Amino acid sequence: AMALSFLMYPVLRGLALQVHSAVTGSYISGTHSVAFINCINEQIAKDIARAIMDKKLAACVNILPKTSTLYFWKGEIEESTEILLLVKTRTSKISELSSYVRSIHPFEIPEIISLPIDQGNPLYFKWLEESMARD
Questions:
Q1: Which CATH number do you get for residue 72?
Q2: pLDDT tens per residue across all 135 residues of the chain
Q3: Dihedral through CA 22, CA 24, CA 28, CA 33, nearest 10?
Q4: Fewest 10 Å CB contacts: which of 31, 33, 63, 109?
């Protein structure tokens, strides 16, 4: 019984936070995330952004123009320009987003990282929810 209680705690806590959020209208920190995805050029960035949106894996994707990038690749320092996607999504979709992007991205090892959103405009978070299909 004790082990079951420990295993159920995260689920019960999550449900309690969702109920609290629904009743009070407050935002639950970490419900949404921003994912960063690098792309080799603007066309690939637009194609990946459109594919993400078509699959309803995000509510919004910003395409940031040319960034200068230095990185290690196979023991050497490389330098290139890349396009950065900022993907606003539900944290629960990050795993699916990452898998999907890896399946369509031309890089051998694409950058796909995410950070949870701690705070922000409650109306924006409401819009994010309305813009994405339910899990």
A1: 3.30.70.120
A2: 666 666 766 666 566 655 656 566 678 888 999 999 999 999 999 999 999 999 999 999 999 999 999 999 999 999 999 999 999 999 999 999 999 999 999 999 999 999 999 999 988 988 998 888 654
A3: 70
A4: 109
